[in-house]
## 1
Amino acid sequence: MPEVIVPIGPHHPALKEPVNFKVIADGEKIIRLDLDLSYSHRGIEKAAEQRDFIRVLPLLERVCGICSHSHTTVFAKGIEELMQLEIPLRAQYVRTIIAELERMHSHLLWLGVAAHEIGFNTLFMWTWRDREAVQDTLEEMSGNRVHYGMNEVGGVRRDLTPEQVNAALARLPQLEERVKKYIDMVNNQKTLLVRFRGIGKLSKEEALKYGAVGPTARASGVDYDARRDDPYLVYADIPWNVVTDTNGDVYGRTRVRIGELMESIRIVRFCLENLPEGQIRVNAPKTAPKGEILSRYEAPRGELVHFIRTNGTDKVERVDIRTPTLANWTSVAMCLVNQNLADIPVIVAAIDPCLSCTSRIAVVDNHTRRAGVITLDELRKRSRARFQRLE
Amino acid sequence: MIGPITLDFVKEKIQDIGTAEQVRSNRIRITTTPGHIRDAIKSVQELLSCDRLLTISAADNGKTLELIYHLTGPHRMIISLALELPRDAPEAPTTSDILPPSGIYERQIHDLFGILFQGRSDLKKIILNEDWPENEYPLRKDWTPAPDTFYGGIKGEKV
Amino acid sequence: MTDALLLLVYILLFPGFFFLFVYALFLSYLDRKIVARMQSRVGPPFYQPFADLIKMLGKEVIDPDGVDRQVFNTIPLVALAAVMTAYLYVPVTGYSPLAFQGDLVVVLYLMAIPTFSLFLLGWLSRNIFSAIGGIRAVTQLFIYEVPFFLALLTPAIMAGTWSISEIVAWQQHNIWLVFLQPIGFIVALIGLQAKLERTPFDIPEAETEIVAGSWTELTGRRLAFMHLTTEISLVVGSALIAALFLGGPMLPWALSPLWLNGVAGFCLFLFKTLAVLLVLSSIKVATGRIRIDQLNEIGWKYIASAAMVQVGIVLVINYLRVIP
Amino acid sequence: MAVPSAGVSQRLVNWARLKSPWVTLFNSGGCNACDIEVIACLMPRFDIERFGILVKGSPRHADIMIVTGHVTLKQASRLRRVWEQIPEPKYVIALGACGASGGVFHGLYHSVNSVDSVIPVDAFAVGCPPRPDEIINAVVTCLNLLKEDIAHGGKEWRQTNGIKNIKNTNEIREATL
């Protein structure tokens, strides 16, 4: 069978962050996955070594447009620990609120994208409509819809006014109602079930073995959540639960994300209602002492790790960013094996990858290495084979 | 499942592999050598029940290149296995067969630092573009773009 | 002489091609508007499909590398011509002047041509997305065409004629066939949705999987003609269902003077096609895309057997002469 | 080329071009914040379909290309290839600070900095990322530009007048070949 190259999704209106991967397929079945990350490689890690702590935060914020707060929080948290800086409680609460709002907007976005992948545009539109409520809250609090710029080393840059808190609280009940509706839809809507159930299955052992993180791992019953296992901000002091599921497929990942939406609403409500008074930042020293730290953070997509090393100057010596998507690729590569080609978008979307709108999937047949377009004979043969299988 | 991991417990288990020190309440750093890293990972997996790899960090400290494997398990203790490699011929054995997730990190580190992982045949470019010149590793401290080298992009137009 | 002139007016102006273009664009607008409103959006302005069409006609035509230009230019025209011809046999104001015994079969045949054109375009495009889109289009055709044909032939068996206009006339004297053949009606609706490649059967042009399927390499005029073809197929398809199952453009009783019959029939035509469109749009809004192997399973297991059952029921009814 | 006293059909086409701008989205290696804001434009809150704007997957169907983000080395050649696939008349919008100058990524080793060093850009939208209303505004700006281009009979007038930093498209095509 000649090599068939299907670069799914140049200008993909749904997926983010440029990543390209080749799918090595045997006919209709997938054998393995090959990855190319160079489309969006910018050299942020190098640039971070050349900018001081004040200037590096806006840079890290732009690692990713969806988890922008995650990257700055995990970095600021690490640097503060190296400086042995205790940041005020109010600042920690504000960071938590923004973090959970970000999780909400990311999960709503994901649900819409997953629906779009299976052509269910109505759900796509609805979730993104409800996402606007979260965006409004974030915009009121931070002044921007996507890059919030809330963090600085030593605290947060903007305080929450009582009006902002009340406006945010007023939006939550309706959002909660909508999320409940989505829970209902995901459990009952036929086309969603048909396309999500049993797709991209990952057992608990496999999830552990291949290092899946975040909702992908939790959907397989792996009970890991950096918010609980390595508590940061105020997660140790507030009531919330880790959501897990045992399905292990796309359906399970959807359920975990919707469950986390409910938890996030709970956390945000608790934090807004119990927002302590006080300072929002402390003065941070310009330089950090020599040291190294592994800073962990549960971003919407999974565990985000920054390995930071300082050398006594006002710049980091090294910051190594491990994004959740990178950690999840190995498991995606595994759960795509033996799946149908048409399920690639939804399985890939199920880990909520940060992909971009560039060529992404290339199907390469394993038997021959010849590149080219399918010939008519081939096409005939294929459709005949297909047709025989139908009968 | 084993009990809470303490420094003494770790020291006892890995005494012939390297030296351990507690660097944070939940992190123990073990300094080892490239020759021991596979054994170290195996024993950390078996004796300390670390079932997941957080990440492999690479760093250039000016004199040597460092690789740090961060593993954790149900006990929530992070075990960091650090090793140093010489700058002129940085080579380490691959761990992708015993730790499947490390495959992708190894390719990335190979691109950015030029560390060769013995036993990997598929260390092709993953994070730098296909026109990137060989033997240029951007995250090394002494690397700066050479003015006349073509790094990719569009030929003929200097941007 | 006047007859010939009238026929020419019928074919070219009203209710012929001119009306067809206007109505096709209008239905396309309405479809988009309904979908937008159901998704709580505002939706496009009324002239949108027209503006899109004109713009596409005015765009540059790009020939993909290594493509036979002549064939690539011709295929969209063939598809357009096929559905326009099919329209002439569908009764709009009461009775199609071109009707003959067997025009139902001709219409069904002509309606299949756009799918084959898409397949040819996809294969000729030398683009992998288009090729896959083409394969999927044909695969899908094999799945839905049999139940769709069966469902549309049951009215013919029931009425004992192969002419659409006569089936309409039969319903005028007896009863709407939707009451006698509800299964056939549903199968026909599903088949039409699949034929028009709308969600949940938009597998051949699944945007998130294969960009735009066979459409990917089409530009300018070719794209415009293919768009027009799908829009006209929507008119023909809904008119066909309205004629075969919903009594078509005829009142159960005759009016005098005679021209009033035509006007009433035309109003009924508009009303019934809009009703069919509303159902089709609702299906589109309420579902996601299914996979081709799932469609295969559903199509052969349930839809085809439902159509078979319907044929059986009709044969039994005819045999027992329940309806004279 | 159209002249101001064009015939009815040409005037109709000009009108249609203004009323039906189809957009294709290209992420040239940015942080995807701009992308989600473009997608947010499709949503009930902003609903650009009411202006006749559709986001199309295939560049062959598009009139306007929205480029998000600075251009990475790898994406530069792809960006130009995709741009060449769009049929004339075509317009390009560069979104955000990165699209204009590279923004926060200016001067990084894997970046060519700005979109207009690869393809000619007709409109820039400010912001990091631009709000959806600003993106809609950028499309409207493009349409106004289109109107002026129609009045002048082509894009060439902008080079001589120096109104917009537009490079000769032929020049760029030759450079690629």
## 2
Amino acid sequence: MNLAFDLLVGLSLVWVAWRIVGSRDHFQAVVLFITFGLILSLAWTRLQSPDIAIAEAAVGAGLAGVLFMDALGGLSSSPGSPRPAVPLTLLFPCLILASIMAIAVLFVPEDFLGLIPVVHGALTDTSLEYPVTAVLLDFRAYDTWLELGVLLVAVLGVMGIRRIGSISGSRLPAPADPVGRWIIRILLPIMVLIGGYLLWLGAFAPGGAFQGGVVLAAAGVMLWQAGHPSLGLLPRLWWIVLLFCGFLSFLILAFWSLFHSGRMLAHPENKLWILGVEYAATISIATCLISLVLASPGRCRVRDN
Amino acid sequence: MPELLVLIPFTAALLCFILKGVLRSLAALLGASLTFSASALLAADVYQNGAIRISLGGWDAPLGIGLSADGLSVIFLLLTAIVGLMVSIYCVPFFSGLHEQPLARHFWSLWMFLWGSLNSLFLVSDVFNAYVVLELVSISAAALAALSGTAASLRAALRYFLTAMAGSMAFLLGVGFIYAQAGTLDMFLVGSSGGDGPLMAMALGLMTVGLIMKSALFPFHFWLPPAHGEAKAPVSAILSALVMKGSFFLLLRIWFNVFQDSSLTVHAASVLGFLGLFAVIWGSYQAIIQSRLKLIIAYSSIGQMGYLFLLFPLVLTTVDAAWKIEAWTACVFQAVSHGLAKASLFLAAGNLIQASGTDNLRSMRNIAGSLPMTTFTLALAGISLMGLPPSGGFVAKWMLLQSILASGQWWLAAAPILGGLLTAGYIFKILSQAFVPGAEGACCKPVCFVMEKAALVLAIFSILIGFRAEEVIFLLTDRICAANPGGFWP
Amino acid sequence: MNSLLIYSITATSLFTIGLMGLAAHPNLIRKIISLNIMAGGVFLFLISLAYHPDDPGVDPVPQAMVLTGIVVTISATAFALCLARRITEITGSSRLEDKPEDTDS
Amino acid sequence: MNLNFWLPILMLSSSLFTGLIIFFLKEEKVGLRTVLNLTGAVFKVVAVHYMAYRLLVLDQIHHVSFSMGLGFDFALRVDFLSLMFLALSSNLWLVTTLYAVGYLEGSPNRSRFFGFFSLCVTACTGIAMAGNLITFFIFYEFLTLATYPLVVHRQTREALEAGRIYLWYTILGGTLVFVGVVWLQVLAGPLDFIDTGALQSLGTESHFSLCTIFLILIMGLGVKAALVPLHGWLPVAMVAPAPVSALLHAVAVVKAGAFGIVRVVFDVFGRDFAGSLGLLGPLAAAASITIIFGSIRALSQTDLKKRLAYSTVSQVSYITLGAAVIAPFSTVGAIVHLVHQGIMKVTLFFCAGNFAETLGVHNIHQLKGVARRMPLTALLFTLAAFGMIGVPPMAGFVSKWYLGLGSVDAGSSWILGVLVASSLLNSAYFLPIIHAMWFEKPVQQWKTLRQGLLEAPWMLLVPPVFTAGAALFAGLVAAWQWSPLGLARQIATGMGIYP
Amino acid sequence: MIWIAAVFFPLVLAAVCMLPGACLRAGFRMIFLAPLPALLLAFTTQGTAEFELTFFLLESRLGFGPHGKTFLLITSLSWLFASLFTALGPRGSLGKRSFCVMFLLTMCGNLGLVLSRDAVSFYTFFALMTFCAYSLIVHSKKDSAYTAGRIYLIMAVLGEGMLMAGIITSVFLSPSHYFDQISPALGSLSPGHPVFIFLFAGFGVKAGLIFLHFWLPLAHPAAPTPASAVLSAAMIKAGILGWMNFFPLGLVPFASWASVLMTLGLGGAFFGAMAGLGEREPKIILAYSSISQMGLMVFCLGLGFLDQNLWIMAGPVLFLLVFNHALSKTALFLGIEVMYSVSVSRGKKTWTAMLMAVPALALAGAPFTGGSQAKYLLKEVLGAAALSGFFSWVISISSGLTALLMIHFIRQAASAKKHYPCYAGRNMTWICLVVIILILPWIFYELYPRNRIQWMDPLLFTSSLWPVLAGLAAYVILRHKVYPATREIFGVLPGSAEIIDRTWHHLKHRLKTRGVMESLSARMNLVRFSDNFVQSKMVQKISHELERWFRSWSVSVFLFILMIITIALMAWTGA
């Protein structure tokens, strides 16, 4: 039974991807891309990695979709671009590449266990139970830190391109129909609640900093869609603190652990430190994502700082 | 303490974003000098008592991420430190000018982030970590390139960013394949576990092409000239002197640490060799027929990068270990002296553009009279690029030709010879302008004293390293940490 | 044909389709979309490696890698989109090389 | 403070530091610049003579070497041959500096000019004192760089064009020498000029590569020594001011090439080994072709300096010819011609410079009856011209004499034919000038551009008198032990060639 | 010390003349002092003295060769009279600095030439003399002088070139560059060796040999009188001296060379005399008479070549001939000048004509003169060489012809319409020169006591008298027809001088306009080739197209995939 389901998911993924590439209309491509994101999160659940499913759904489908839709709005609405010119000469090498990679995949050893035993062995001496969060925040904390750095740089980059110091003041016109406003007024508290719960759950069950942050970001963006300045309300300094708190927490941890125990990014015994870092990461992920969505449409700038 | 090299720039980046005006420049300069001294200390430490391997967060290799500072990475770190410090000193007056003021905040934070990510790239010893750092480098570099705000620069930055992302995706897939085969992510563990299966071959293919895309080797060089040509002078100096070297360093790590013992790399090396040869000739030729100064220098970067890729066929085919060291030293010297010379060339070009207002070569008429210091810098940097005797470039060309002749692959000799001639072609195309009597009316705005001195110091450095070859050879031979004790030289 | 095979083959094909998409459309948005597809493909490949139906469960390290990858990809996409919008605002066309670049001397 | 180590370095640094200091001198500080220049030059001349005394009398070997870490070391060694070239370049530097100071009175960019001028001389000193082929190459390239700004000093369009052509040739030559040196090092390891026999020890299978290396090296050096197909830059570079074409294109640069060929043939390969490889025949042929070609081309030049340039092209190949003939006399002839040609050619260029500077005369037709207006310069020109033709009392005859003897000794008397033909051709293009100067009536009214005590400013007259006197002296008292010929004989005996 | 003074004293005087104003005038007046030290040297030191000059020019050595003493006497005497003549004459054109200096330099070259005993210094002085003589020839700055000078220079330089080749080969073949070692070394060579050809031709140009004489008839009229006097008296003899120094005379018999010399000598003698008849200008006549006399000397030298001991007899004869010709030719040239200066009064003119006849007769070999003695001794040598039959007859005819030529010369000189100012001093020197010619046989006795002849011997008297009478008779008969007849017969040879001149001009013209190898060197310009290629529009267009082709996405993605495949496969095959 599982086999049929896997086949179905795999084929639909490939089919949607092919349709995205093949479609002439940009809007259609974006919509298809959102469905592609949802199917992908379906695949993640099938492969028993729930937190990735949540992240994919919220980011891959949600935020990316918003960004693309917003970008499409800004573009000169050229009705239909000419038939996508996939040059035939390109088709043939792509086929070869795909087949070579497929053959290579066959050689993956059957009893491939990867790092599972090592992680489980080391789980005992970290204060986190759930392996994924442990890997993320403890074993490979350096990766997470750099990844927060990437997020931060993306925000700085967008600021640089828009030549703005902060995102305060960007507002969208309020949606006309009352239904939209009412849905947002109900959904917002629920999403914030779920975000918090996911964050708290992360320590011992699938969830954690990323998922919480992403859900909170979705809430913020929804608020912004409703015409509310959401994060734009914050004064510039507060906004910066929220933006930097994740990256800064890791930095402080690094400095402290370097000078205290000589081993950078080694978490101290009591659990509080890791949770603190986790919460800060969530907040900064949410803020960064919201700022990315808010900052990119440059046209209705009210004033520059 | 290699970790400091990563921490200090990041803290400086945050500070620069928050602070304003003079405070910001102070923070930036402080950050730059601290990083410089940290990398100098690290270099001394490695020179004295060998390569350093640390595992972050206390978790050892298969699980946690490690940092490794050996001879090779220390040399590149020093290069980044020197160029970084000089560029920072150059940028303080550059960005305090009226025109550039709004960009200062973004420039300094992005530049510090880039410096920190470059330092971490040179210390990398985990494959996935390499991907994340590579991504961080690409985004900050693209953001810096897009700072000048003109349509052309934005376009160039986006083209650069898209190619970088495609490259990173291929790299990540390669990481996946390695993980599928070796089950671990640490470079040295993968290297020691060996494995010549199709998975590793696929991984090698993907990762190499990903990194070639990012270091602008011949077929994938199209994004570089507009990106470096349109960016601001200090930014293009950083891009072509350091960022290109970053992805090349990673390629070295992969080919000589991850695939250290595997026989996969023998045949593939000649492909890289030929591409390098074409890059040298194509880049230098293109540089001759350009008429805009920064484009000439940008295309010359493509040409000079070609020399580095000659390393692969030379090291992997010769049998005699002595000539391998020769080839290694040649490649490292070429990277370092090119980095220094290219940075000083771009900074000098920046001075010229600021003085004469236009980037066109004809605007450089009779600069010998008005900007003698800049002409002298251009001359010194040119000498180092051309590989004329007193310079580091000469040492590189000398050892390169020697190892080529010793390795018997005489067709590669075309690169240093023909390349050298073509390089002389465009260098003297620039220098001869200095002697052309300029139009009387050409107004020449005064260029800040500090900016000229920064470019000059870099040029002098690129000449001086020519004399200190022993230390570099020592670093490359005895201070290399390799997957298994057999070390670099199988 | 266990699930590892199915998913990794779909992953590689997604990667290839993404590459084709990159070359297919001159429009910038479409290129960024195809880049995301490539990313999706790569992550699928990573997770397909980590999946073991029964015994010790899913390997957390690839999951962590994919999570980090997703956040990196979204930030890169956001940055690229902002660049694309800025270009369209300035030059009015959402393509990269329709008019001869001014790089020609 | 053992002088053996410090003296060569002192030699090099004396002109290097004067050059660097002058670079950063303000344009107006004429007095200081001239004083600096002259003290540097005088110091160097004194140092050369002291070193000569130590070398010839006290038999001290001056050797300096420090390793560059690349498998070879930067070695400076002063032996008889280098002493000869050193003496030539340092004395002529002093003379030409004096001339240049007078010549460039009131012209722009003089700091830059004298800066690069001293750098060129440093390069020449380095070439002379190079202990191995690699150090020689380093200074060889340095010379190219230092001479380019001098060629384009006037910054006119043709000067720049000439500079470009000059660069094109010399960089090509430099690259060729580079390849040759590296290949030789790969084949035979680091070679000093002392151990000449090292190459014989290589097996016969490497003979082919040795021949190609020799060919590459000679072509590389031939660019600067103006062998026929590669001489294109010399006449074009005549657009440079007179002191530049005097010291550089007639003496320093061209001699560097010839000196290099002599070093390669005698010290690197060893003349007998090169002969056994059959390399010297074609070299002699190439040199003879250059001699004849240069002279014929000189015949058809109407511009005085161009004619002198082509005559330099042919005269320098005497040295190559001498080096290529396996006979003790021709070796001595080649080495002594190194100095004689330098002295005579410098005088010719000084006089040409004087004519151009004081009367604005460039063309040969304008030279008619110039002896009335400038008798001293005309006399000096005549003396040097007779030297070039090889008329006995002058130095030129001595070297032609020895070259002739050597060629007959080696049994290839066709070379004697070449020498005689070239003397005839020389007289064919020099005698009409002398005739026009002394015996023709002036065609136009002389407009004096520069006033001076005698016919021209004294600074322009003293140097040619000095060099012409030296040429006459070198010819008249050739038999003296310390005369150029005496030195050349000692060099040859040192090399074990001359009986 | 006397040696150095002899050779270099004229240099000192030349230096004095170089100085401005008063020194020049004083120098000019003292010009006659220059040859005195050489004359003193000729008289005082004994025949085989040597003097080492180790420093000078590759260890040169001065000294008298086997016959150096007489040669020195001859040269210094003729230089003495010429310089006396100039010193006492008007300061006008001859007083200029260029003439004085060059005159003294040529004198130094000539004296040094005679005294030098090694090839290098010989060649040095030879070159010095040749090139300074050029300036004497073109002194008058007339066009004819320039053409004469140019031809002289061309032939002199060609001669020098051949001489250099000859000297270098001969010096190489001998152990050292001293003459007393060169001639024996050359003796051991085969006669056909090129060194002989070079030396022969080299010195032949200077000695005015038959087919190398073109410059002589042009140079003499162009040069001022004292210069042409010395030119024909002393300088031409350098050729003879050169042959004597180099060729192994008296050591090895060279039959082939002997015949060549003898035929050329005789040819020269006859041609000189005949061609002279066709000229009007007295100086040209004298030039041709020099050619004929030189021909006679070459004939005598040729005799010397026949056999070693023959040279012992022929040597003194040659020197007597040289001595006699030198003095009489000087007297004749200076006589022209005196003739022109006294043409005012009829009486005086006849007196000078009478006096002029003395050297003329001496040349012709009239009885009681040096000439007759020389010719008589020559016949003796012929007798000894068993060739007396035909050749002695030929000798007599040549003396007759010379007599005819001399009479023609005196007639032309007397009838010339030139009026020069008369200077008593000059005339006096000329007269004592004529007296010396008269007492020449007795001087000769002191030099060569062995070949004393009896004056009163009737055979000697008749044999020397009839040719002179025959010449006189021939002149009286052919007086009217003499000039046109010989003109067109021998007009052809002087024409050949124009040939050289025209070829030289044609060559220069062709070189100037098209320039030899202009196209060749233009084509070989490497830089222009590279410019055409690098900057050519077509290549740039291609490269821009290629660049844009790389920039397009489809191509880059295609290459991207292609590269992944190739590297993966290459790696896979490698494993």
